[in-house]
Q: What sequence folds into this?
């Protein structure tokens, strides 16, 4: 039984490594894969997972984000970076990332609220997590967007 599970995990890992999608999504793209590789690393101590995650993060950060929601866009990227930081997994300053994406994501979130799109994955509610959840990064109320 355990052998079957481990074989399936190896199969999933191989498929994710071979997947060449342009979608950065936390739920439907590369960010979700990075979460898998992190969990795989915790259980296997496979250093290749760390290298893959670091290389992917650099590519995603430098990618032009056209979507800002939690499921498929920059909000999901922010959530994952915050998660990795809380886990002490990566050695980086999260404020550099958030200073770059906060103004854009914040404006998008306010626009979604104003248009009545409160959907968790595709609207404002999921993005609000970046501003309301406890976080080790420097996130003050003054950085919370107030209007579009």
A:
């Amino acid at each position: 039984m355990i052998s079957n599970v481990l074989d399936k995990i190896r199969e999933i890992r191989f498929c994710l490594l071979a997947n060449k999608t342009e979608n950065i999504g936390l739920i439907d793209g590369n960010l979700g894969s990075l979460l898998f590789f992190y969990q795989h690393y915790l259980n296997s101590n496979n250093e290749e997972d760390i290298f893959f995650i670091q290389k992917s993060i650099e590519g995603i950060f430098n990618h032009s984000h056209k979507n800002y929601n939690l499921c498929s866009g920059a909000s999901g990227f922010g959530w994952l970076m915050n998660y990795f930081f809380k886990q002490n997994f990566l050695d980086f300053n999260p404020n550099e990332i958030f200073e770059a994406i906060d103004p854009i994501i914040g404006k998008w979130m306010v626009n979604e609220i104003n248009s009545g799109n409160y959907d968790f994955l595709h609207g404002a509610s999921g993005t609000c997590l970046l501003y309301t959840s406890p976080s080790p990064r420097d996130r003050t109320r003054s950085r919370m967007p107030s209007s579009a």
About this structure: The radius of gyration is 16 Å. The mean pLDDT is 84. The chain is about 60% helix and 0% strand.
